[in-house]
Design goal:
single chain, alpha/beta, Rossmann fold, 6-stranded parallel beta sheet, two-stranded antiparallel ribbon, 9 helices, binds adenosine monophosphate
Length: about 230
């Protein structure tokens, strides 16, 4: 499995990627998390990336491409991987092809998660995350057991700076401008499969397995009936 997950911010890419990683026993490579870790460690990459991330803009392609190139060289990615949040622009998609080609590999799945803006805005503005272990909560749909505290490690939950309303708006614009063209790029290669972003969490593993094992479809897979 060498897969990419595409979709707007808040569509549930991280959740789907984690499930797929567990099903196939492959590492999930999440560029947003890698960049946030670089920001927290105040590395040169993190210091540069922060100003872009705070504004909801994409971090320059070359920086992200180099970061992913290094990550894909690690031994755990030998047998497969799932990329979450990368590629995000045509230049990144081309770079990914080159990176994989050098080791004789090719992508074999691109999953597109679809979700309407109204739901995205609700999800992101009510999302809270644990700065320590990365667990994600939603104030209405998945509230923490103790108010404001992570269920797993009891750390104070935070709202990501880029989950604030004005930055969400910009992230959605950037998605439409820069990332959506990739859908055509991968559609032409016959790689895209579509899944709805509002599938019930309980049904998600089964639906993901079904979609990934199915033939290419560009219409969303609906929630199973009955
Ligand atoms: P995410 O957690 O995927 O929503 O990413 C958060 C922020 O990290 C984005 O708004 C970008 O600023 C940056 N970022 C993550 N992945 C990429 C990427 N592939 N290319 C450029 N910037 C990225």
């Amino acid at each position: 499995m060498k897969a990419v997950i595409l979709g707007p911010p808040g569509a549930g890419k991280g959740t789907c990627a984690k499930i797929i990683g567990e099903i196939y026993g492959i590492p999930v490579i999440t560029t947003g998390d890698m960049l946030r870790a670089a920001v927290a460690r105040m590395t040169p990459l993190g210091l540069t990336a922060k100003s872009y991330m705070d504004r909801g803009e994409l971090v320059p392609d070359d920086l992200v491409n180099d970061m992913v190139t290094e990550r894909l060289k690690e031994s755990d990615a030998e047998g497969g991987f799932i990329l979450d949040g990368y590629p995000r622009s045509p230049r990144q998609a081309e770079a990914l092809e080159r990176i994989l080609k050098t080791s004789g590999k090719k992508l074999n799945q691109v999953l597109h998660i679809k979700l309407e803006d109204k739901t995205i805005i609700d999800r992101l503005s009510k999302r809270r995350s644990c700065p320590r272990c990365g667990a994600i909560f939603h104030l209405d749909n998945k509230p923490p057991k103790a108010k404001g505290k992570c269920d797993a490690c009891n750390t104070e939950l935070v709202q990501r700076d880029d989950d604030k309303p004005e930055v969400i708006k910009r992230r959605l614009e950037v998605y439409r401008e820069k990332t959506q063209p990739l859908l055509d790029f991968y559609k032409k290669k016959g790689l895209i499969k579509v899944i709805r972003g509002d599938i019930n969490l309980m049904d998600l593993p089964t639906t993901l397995k079904r979609v990934l094992n199915s033939r290419v479809r560009t219409k969303p897979h609906e929630q199973p009936q009955g």
